[in-house]
C-alpha cells in the first residue's frame, strides 16, 4: 500500500514528506542488489541490518551545499542520513575540518497526520530528570522507527514504572558494595560516575522494558524494550550529529545553574564549569539530564538542541499572533555536554 503523501506546506516544517515503510532487503524487487548498489540510489539508505529505507521527499532542513577543500581541492558533498542530511565536517581525503553553519532539530519533524515526534513531559518527581530524559528519548525512537515499521500510533510510556525498576536495580548495586551518589548530584569532576548512573536507565529499559500506557482498562501490553545503547565521546560533535540525523536521539548530562532555569528561546546555554563550582566552595554540582534532539553551528560555535522535562513552556517561542510554535527545547554549547552521552536505538525485532 502506497503511503499517503503529505501536503506540500509541511515540507518546510521538516521531515521526509513522503516517508516509506521499511522493506526487507530480501524482497523480490531488491534481492539482486547488494548494499553498495542500494546506497548509490538517490532515495534509499541502509539504516539497520536487513532493512532498506526509502528516504522520500527531503526536508528543507537538509544541508545541500558542497564545499571544496583548500588543501587538496577535493569536492566534499553533504553526508546522507535518514532524517537530516548534514554538511561534511571533514575533508574526505586530508581530513581538514570545515566549520560550516547549519541547524537541524526533531521539533521540525512531522510524521503522519502532521504529528510531531516529540512529546513534552512535565517532570513530576524531583531528582528524576534521568528517568524522564530516557522516557522522552525512547518515545522519539519509537515515533520514528515505529512509523517506518508500519506502526500507526507511537507508544506512550509510564515514567513511574522506569523509576521503580531503576530504584530496584540501584538497590542491587548497593548490596554488591558499589556506592552510587544521588541521582542528579555528583562529586565535582566525577564524570565517570555520572555516566554510569545514566547508563543504568538504559540497561533497565533493555533488560526489563517499560510499561506502556494502555488505551483501555483491561488492555495488557508487554513492556516496551529498547535495542542497543551506544556511548559516544562527549567531544565527538560530528558523531553525535550523525546519530541524531539518523533518527537516534542522545541522552546526556549538563551542569545546572540559574541561567539554565531562565533560558530564553534562541539563547545558547553556557554551563558553569566544575572549576567555577570549586572556586565557590561547592563539593557537589547539580547536573541535569537532557535529550539531544538537534544540532547546529553558528559563527563557529557548535551547539545542541536539547529537550528538558521541566515544562512544555520552557524556552517558549510564540508567533506574532501569540500561538505557541515551540516549547520545552533549548540550546546548549556542545562543549558543555558532560562525558559521556548515550545514543538510543530501537529493538527492530521486538517492537
From TrEMBL:
Biological process per Gene Ontology, one example term: proteolysis
Signal peptide: none
InterPro entries assigned to the protein according to its UniProt record, in alphabetical order: Papain-like_cys_pep_sf, Peptidase_C1A_C
Pfam families from the UniProt entry: Peptidase_C1
Molecular functions per Gene Ontology: cysteine-type peptidase activity
Top-level taxon in the UniProt lineage: Eukaryota
Domain (Peptidase C1A papain C-terminal) ranges: 206-312
UniProt protein name: Peptidase C1A papain C-terminal domain-containing protein
Amino acid at each position: 500500500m502506497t503511503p499517503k503523501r503529505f501536503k506540500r506546506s509541511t515540507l518546510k516544517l521538516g521531515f521526509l514528506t513522503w516517508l516509506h515503510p521499511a522493506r526487507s532487503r530480501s524482497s523480490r524487487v531488491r534481492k539482486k542488489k547488494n548494499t553498495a548498489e542500494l546506497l548509490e540510489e538517490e532515495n534509499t539508505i541502509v539504516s539497520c541490518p536487513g532493512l532498506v529505507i526509502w528516504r522520500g521527499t527531503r526536508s528543507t532542513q537538509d544541508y545541500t551545499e558542497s564545499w571544496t577543500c583548500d588543501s587538496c581541492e577535493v569536492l566534499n558533498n553533504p553526508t546522507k542520513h535518514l532524517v537530516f542530511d548534514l554538511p561534511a565536517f571533514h575533508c574526505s581525503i586530508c581530513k581538514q575540518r570545515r566549520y560550516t553553519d547549519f541547524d537541524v532539530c526533531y521539533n521540525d519533524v512531522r510524521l503522519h497526520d502532521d504529528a510531531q515526534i516529540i512529546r513534552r513531559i512535565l517532570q513530576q518527581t524531583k531528582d528524576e530528570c534521568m528517568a524522564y530524559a530516557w522516557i522522552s528519548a525512547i518515545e522519539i525512537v519509537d515515533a520514528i522507527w515505529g512509523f517506518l515499521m508500519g506502526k500507526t500510533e507511537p507508544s506512550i510510556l509510564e515514567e513511574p514504572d522506569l523509576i521503580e525498576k531503576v530504584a530496584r536495580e540501584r538497590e542491587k548495586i548497593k548490596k554488591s558494595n558499589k556506592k552510587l551518589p544521588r541521582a542528579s548530584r555528583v562529586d565535582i569532576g566525577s564524570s565517570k560516575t555520572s555516566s554510569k548512573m545514566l547508563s543504568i536507565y538504559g540497561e533497565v529499559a533493555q533488560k526489563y522494558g517499560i510499561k506502556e500506557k494502555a488505551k483501555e482498562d483491561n488492555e495488557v501490553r508487554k513492556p516496551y524494550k529498547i535495542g542497543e545503547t551506544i556511548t559516544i565521546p562527549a567531544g565527538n560533535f560530528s558523531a553525535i550529529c550523525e546519530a541524531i540525523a539518523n533518527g537516534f536521539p542522545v541522552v546526556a548530562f549538563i551542569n545546572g545553574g540559574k541561567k539554565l532555569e531562565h533560558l530564553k528561546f534562541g539563547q545558547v546555554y553556557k554551563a558553569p564549569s566544575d572549576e567555577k563550582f570549586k572556586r565557590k566552595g561547592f563539593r557537589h554540582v547539580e547536573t541535569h539530564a537532557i535529550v539531544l534532539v538537534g544540532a547546529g553551528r553558528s559563527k563557529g560555535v557548535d551547539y545542541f538542541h536539547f529537550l528538558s522535562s521541566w515544562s512544555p513552556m520552557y524556552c517558549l517561542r510564540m508567533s506574532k499572533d501569540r500561538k505557541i510554535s515551540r516549547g520545552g527545547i533549548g540550546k546548549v554549547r556542545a562543549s558543555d555536554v558532560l562525558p559521556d552521552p548515550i545514543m538510543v536505538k530501537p529493538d527492530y525485532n521486538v517492537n
